[in-house]
Amino acid sequence: MVISGSIILFFIEQILNKQGYKKDFHGWKLFFCIAIPFVSLSFFLKELTGIVASALMGVFAYFFLFTNRKLAWKPWLPYMVLIIFLLLPKVVPPLKTIVSLSLPFDNILNSSVSAAFQPFRSPLFPFIFASICAALLGKSSKTNLKPVVKKIVTIFIILFPSLAITQLMLSSGSQMPSMISSMSTLFTKTGAAYPVLSPFIGVVGTFITGSTTVSNIIFSSVQYNAAENLSLSKEIVLAMQLNGASLGNAICLFNIIAAAAVAGVGKYVSILHKTILPILIATLVTSLLGMLLLVIF
């Protein structure tokens, strides 16, 4: 992930150079400030690594890169509260139990499909909680919900169909072979070329669903079964799936539209034109590194 991230950053630097922003570019310093703790701490912190590495990068940036230390803290309060809120359940066992609270929905529409909703694990609750805490800490009661609701509705209309398709894929297979099983059989037919294909599957998964997590939910099972059938290292194949799924965020239309809506940018196609080549190159490098690791291990 660090190597493919370096490739992406190289292309970002080239784009900024063309636009005349070279002087103020500290991307490489920031990148290695997040990459070094990410690699060195991942074995110990597991899923917390990204949060801790990001926090360390922020601290480094503030003390060593920003010349103006008179930083307005109020805009950053929601982020700090959100980080604390996400970290506490990981280290305090009683909070972990509360966060794991689940509301089950059995036999939906008289079918064999069941699901469960964990409200405190939903992205909605942490952001609302962080916003309320930030408002109290910042001693501000003024809110303008109209643009927030407008953006939420717009993004919901775009994302809902992809999430519906995702659930259909996961719930298939009651009477016929499941979609996941069928895809595993299909991918297994690629044989020795499968490691080249593996990270691209993750990219396509994120491109379709708009989420690294959902891509992993759907295609991790596919990749695991394919690796097992081909007698390949399941850990390395799943690592390539995760890396590809992460890279896919840069070319996912849902994410581009959502980010552009927040930033006030309307040229979605031009963004995709700039991101697709770096992502394809980074994914191909991931494939080659994965093949090398599979040969070694």
Task: Please explain how this structure is put together.
With 297 residues, the chain is mostly helical. The protein folds into three domains: 1-71, no CATH class; 83-143, no CATH class; 145-297, no CATH class. 72% of the residues lie in helices and 2% in strands. It has helices at 2-18, 27-45, 49-65, 77-91, 93-99, 124-137, 145-171, 179-188, 194-209, 212-229, 234-247, 253-263, 268-296; strands at residues 103-105, 115-117. A two-stranded antiparallel sheet has the order 1-2. Helix 1 (2-18) runs antiparallel to helix 2, helix 7 (145-171) runs antiparallel to helix 12 and helix 10 runs antiparallel to helix 11. The longest helix is centred in the C-terminal third of the chain and has 29 residues, at 268-296. The chain is globular. The mean pLDDT is 82. It is found in: Cell membrane. It is a multi-pass membrane protein. The chain crosses the membrane at residues 27-45, 51-67, 79-103, 123-140, 152-172, 192-219, 240-263, 275-296. Belongs to the lactate permease family. Keywords: Cell membrane, Membrane, Transmembrane, Transmembrane helix, Transport.
